[in-house]
Amino acid sequence: MTTGILSIFALAFLAPVICRFARGHTGWLLALLPATLTIYFATRIGLVAHGERITERLAWVPSLGVELTFYLDGLSLLFALLICGIGALVLIYAGAYLKGREQLGRFYLYLLLFMGAMLGLVLAGNLLLLFVFWELTSISSFLLIGFEHKKAEARRAALQALLITGGGGLALLAGLVLLGQISGGYDVPELLAGGDAVRASTLYLPALLLVLAGAFTKSAQFPFHFWLPGAMQAPTPVSAYLHSATMVKAGVYLLARLASVLGGTDEWFYIVTSVGAATMVAGGVLAFFQTDLKLILAYSTVSALGTLVMLEGLSTDHAARAMVVFLFAHALYKGALFMVAGAIDHETGTRDVTRLGGLRRVMPVTAVAAVIAGVSLAGFGPVFSFIGKELLNEAVLLAEGTARGVLVPFTILGSALFVAVACAAALRPFFGELKETPKGAHEAPAAMWLGPVILAALGLVVGLAPALVAGSLVAPAVASVLGRSEPVELALWHGFNAALLMSVIAAVAGALLFRFRERLRGGTAWSRNLFAFPARGYELSLTWLHRAAAMATRVLQSGYLRSYLTIIVLTTVGLVGYTLLTRAYTPLNFAAAREVRFYEVGVAALILLAALVAVRSRTRLGAVASLGVVGYCVALIFILFGAPDLALTQFLIETLTVILLVLVLHRLPPLALIARAPARARDLVVALLFGGTMTALVLVAWGVPFQQQASNFYAERSYTEAHGRNIVNVILVDFRGLDTLGEITVLSVAAIGVYALLKLRPPEAKRGAAVVNDLSARRRESSPDGELAEVVARAPEGEVS
After folding, report:
1. Handedness of CA 595, 599, 602, 608 (dihedral sign)
2. CA–CA separation, 58 vs 67, rounded Å?
């Protein structure tokens, strides 16, 4: 498993090179790896079906005890087969669909990253590793959705998907951390064995809500459903893969994986079932009103995801069987239908169903695949999805009390909408009169109909012979969801019962909805607005976020150094002062003041005098010289208290700083102080507050008992481990080497920026003088307190200071 995942990532980065040489055959070549992995996972079906759980561990950070752990059971095996199998078909399809497109190699890179991330997610045996792959799916899907980055709609859709799923990912991280704290570890097998302890914990509800937030955003549950149709800006191969086997199923997988841990409670039942049922109906209604093939299929995916989540919320044996079968069937027919939609668009130049008809005459192979997949979407016929629909109906009929009375009509309505959508998306384009299209319609290349034919045929074959997968794939996956083994028997015909009656009612109602679709679209527009309000809410919140950010930027990034310093100082005073007043249990220590020697008082007086001169100085050079005196006095204090190494460092730094400042500031014009008295009074108050706070902090720290542990640690190890006798230097260079490296990096970047600014020169001296005058005028008008902090009185000819 580990090798398979790593090989996909390696192939992803090799894809652009392969594309450069293989050109039109790239899709076929790249598909060899996921096809091989499909065969590999298929060889594990027998082991998993007999109850074996395969775990692989790879040391990642041994010193911290962190491992890469991968876990294969019935649920992850089913997902792995879908991800690799459908992924291979999508790669072949993409090679033909995107033939001649710019940056095709980059597209393959993104798609393989997406595949590897999703495969790693479903095989992760550690919660934190699962989260890493979870976020990688969000990032790679962002790149795929925004692949056609020159289109504003694609960029907007990619950002929307990233913000919503990324926000949910942050909530999920917090939830997984809570689960790890409750269970005492992050390994999935151990977590699955401790479900009772998790449900009994006081942290159960917060962990549940956070995990559900991550799952609902990822799997496009209402009210987060609107990002998924927006993702249709991605190329059709991405849509086919995303909707059938990958990203949108990640939330469903997470809920199924944690169902035995978090499920079985009232909170789980009411939240998960309600959200799933609402999403099922909302997606179906919104799909019914669309005329774009991809949007019809996208909203029907939202409805299907809602159905899966609703079944997970029921937490019964029947619901688990229905969920696994429905998930399997949906992956087959939805992948086929999206590829069909792409083939239609590729060969006719349009996806508008109102402009399509009679394509079976010119696209016979695609039409056969579309009809079979359409029957699967409708869920009424000799196909695998019909078995899933029957199990769905049985699960809601067996629900208890009020839940049954609500879920039965919701399920019938959702199934009816599925039938209507199937007629619109899979039948209408191929039957009736052949309509004229923007491009002369003809059959798609073999690489574009191969995938739909295989997936649609699988749905038909497995429907006619469900025993092929009942014990080998479905039963192990159901056992993983329930946390115990349960026998699974699947059959196409269950006899005349209430579940079949629900299917018949849904089929008739769906046919009527399709028959009178035009009238219904005009008379029930309110329903579209009802389910579309979350999208408008997102846009409104994003607008207000931008306004708030602009307002904060205007306040905090005013362009005046004095404002920045005031904000920083007051924030520090507020936080530190509040902490000192509320949490400083050590009294101020004034005893040390009685031990002050006369020369120490002299040094302190000299520091105060130099600071006062710096404040009152009328020239920049005078202020710099006074501040230099302050620095040298600090170095003198180091000498007086037995720290000559620090004193030497202070002398060197202070000297270098003064020299640099003098070299820079002597080129600037002289200061012209015009600040009014209120501004100077305000600055005085801020300075006194800061000085008083720092003094109080030092006095409090002076009274805290000295802790020997840290100093002893460094004293004992500085020479033996770092081979240095100067403890301070050893701490900076070795023990805290990364901190020092960070400081050096910051200073280097600042130096480069300063050098670049000094090298800037205006194209013309006259233009430079105009800029200076304009800057002076602007500062007079916009300076804080109606003042001008500095006035450019004189500038060297041909330069802007």
Report:
1. negative
2. 6
User: Can you read off the two tokens belonging to residue 617?
Assistant: 């100085």
| pTM assigned to the model | 0.79
Count the alpha carbons within 13 Å of 235 in the hemisphere toward its beta carbon.
Answer: 24
| Lookup: tokens for 768 | 């430079």
Q: What angle do CA 314, 317, 323 make, to 5 degrees?
A: 65
**Phi, psi (degrees; rounded to nearest 5) at 479:** -60, -35
Sign of the Cα torsion 651, 656, 657, 663 reads positive
Q: How confident is the model at residue 673 (pLDDT cuts 50, 70, 90)?
A: low
Question: What residues are paired with 317 via a beta bridge?
Answer: none
User: What is the token pair recorded at 221?
Assistant: 């549950």
326 DSSP assignment: H
Give dist(CA 80, CA 241) in Å, integer: 13
Q: How far apart are CA 437 and CA 358, in angstroms?
A: 11
pLDDT digits (tens, 9 = 90+) for 163-212: 999 999 999 999 999 999 998 888 888 898 888 889 999 999 999 999 99
Task: With cut-offs at 50, 70 and 90, classify the pLDDT of residue 777.
Answer: low
Token pair 């018949």: residue: 504
Task: Tell whether omega for the bond before 364 is within 30 degrees of 0, i.e. cis.
Answer: no
Helix (H, G, I), strand (E, B) or coil at 129: helix
φ/ψ bin of 184: left (φ > 0), alpha (ψ from -120 to 50), beta (otherwise):
left
pLDDT of residue 675 exceeding 80, the answer is: no
In order of 30, 59, 92, the CA distances from 4 in angstroms are 14, 17, 19
Find the helix or strand (DSSP H, E) in which 432 lies. none
Contact 120, 5 (CB under 8 A): yes
446 Cβ contact list (under 8 Å, min separation 6): none
Query: What is the DSSP-derived secondary structure letter of residue 496?
Result: S
Taking only the tens place, the pLDDT of each residue in 300-354 is 999 999 999 999 999 899 999 999 999 999 999 999 999 999 999 999 989 988 8
Q: Nearest 10 degrees: CA dihedral of 74, 77, 81, 87? A: 130
Q: In angstroms, rounded to a whole number, what is the distance separating the alpha carbons of residues 331 and 729?
A: 61
- Please provide residue 732's backbone torsions phi and psi, each rounded to the nearest 5 degrees: -70, -40
CA separation for the pair 257, 481 (Å, rounded): 6
The helix (H) or strand (E) run that includes residue 54 is strand 54-61
* Angle of the 74-97 helix axis to the 104-123 helix axis, nearest 10: 170
- Cα 765 to Cα 590: distance, rounded to the nearest angstrom: 61
Q: Rounded distance, CA 560 to CA 779, Å? A: 10
Helix axes 127-145, 247-262, angle to 10 degrees: 160
Length of the chain, in residues: 801
The closest of 188, 210, 325, 209 to 260, measured between CA atoms, is 188
The 10 Å CB-count burial string (b at 16+, else e) for 375-386 is: bbbbbbbebbbb
Q: Half-sphere exposure of 464 toward its Cβ, with a 13 Å CA cutoff?
A: 6
Q: What is the 3-state secondary structure (H, E, C) of 182-247?
A: HHCCCEHHHHHHCHHHHHHCCCHHHHHHHHHHHHHHHCCCCCCCCHHHHHHHCCHHHHHHHHHCCH
Give the whole-angstrom CA distance, residue 293 versus residue 517: 15
Q: Which residues contact 496 (CB under 8 A, 6 or more apart)?
A: none
Distance CA 296, CA 306 (A): 16
Q: What is the DSSP string of 148-194?
A: STTSHHHHHHHHHHHHHHHHHHHHHHHHHHHHHHHHTS-BHHHHHHT
